[in-house]
Amino acid sequence: MNRSLACLLLLAAALPLFGVEPGEKAPPFANPDLASRHVLSRDYLGKGWLLVDFFATDCVGCKKELPVLERLHRELGAGGPAILVFAADPAGQAVVEPYFRDHPTALTVLLDRYQATVKRYGVSEIPSLFLIDPAGIVVLKQVGFQEGLYERIRALLPADD
């Protein structure tokens, strides 16, 4: 095999490491919620705005980000994006359920114990957040918690009528 072809193959193999970027179609998912009901991407992607957040119970940035997402949910209600929090803790429900029992949320929490959805989205750091438009296209990717998140998300959502 010549060097050019080998370099192209190596580059193609490395592309998933960069993850999903704005302008790309959001990957599908199928994850259980805390009640062991499976939540499927087909119920969300292409049906309205969707915010996908990758979370871990021991993540400091996640604990700062969650109140921002709860504020969006509270203030925008049914007119805002659906918000799915993918808990990527390797211990799964054994740690996620007690965490959310002690820190209740109105958001939908999904388990990603084996990090299948983390891998599909190419998440390299937690928290990571993806805002997906009604066509299923990622319009915002944020890696790590940053101040001003609420304002960045609101600026991308359609204005209230």
Which keywords apply here?
alpha/beta, 161 residues, two-stranded antiparallel sheet, 5 helices, single chain, disordered N terminus, Glutaredoxin, 5-stranded mixed β-sheet
Written description of the protein model:
Mean pLDDT is 89; it is low at 1-16. With 161 residues, the chain is an alpha/beta fold. It has helices at 3-14, 60-76, 93-102, 116-121, 149-156, and strands at residues 30-32, 38-40, 50-55, 82-87, 108-111, 128-132, 138-143. It has a five-stranded mixed beta sheet, with helices on one face. The longest helix is centred in the middle third of the chain and has 17 residues, at 60-76. The protein has one domain (19-151): Glutaredoxin, CATH 3.40.30. The radius of gyration is 17 Å and the shape is globular. 30% of the residues are buried.
Low-confidence stretches: 1-16
The CATH top-level class label: Alpha Beta
Give the C-alpha Rg.
Answer: 17 Å
Classify the beta-strand content into a percent band. 15-25%
CATH architecture: 3-Layer(aba) Sandwich
CATH homolog superfamily? Glutaredoxin
SSE topology string: HEEEHEHEHEEH
Number of strands: 7
From the helix content, strand content and strand pairing, which structural class follows? alpha/beta
- Estimate nothing, just give the exact number of structural domains: 1
Q: How widely separated are the two ends?
A: 59 Å
Classify the fold: give the CATH topology.
Glutaredoxin
SS field, number of helical segments: 5
Average per-residue pLDDT, rounded, comes to: 89
Largest sheet, described in full? 5 strands, mixed
**Share of helix among residues?**
25-40%
- Spatial strand order of the main sheet: 5-4-3-6-7
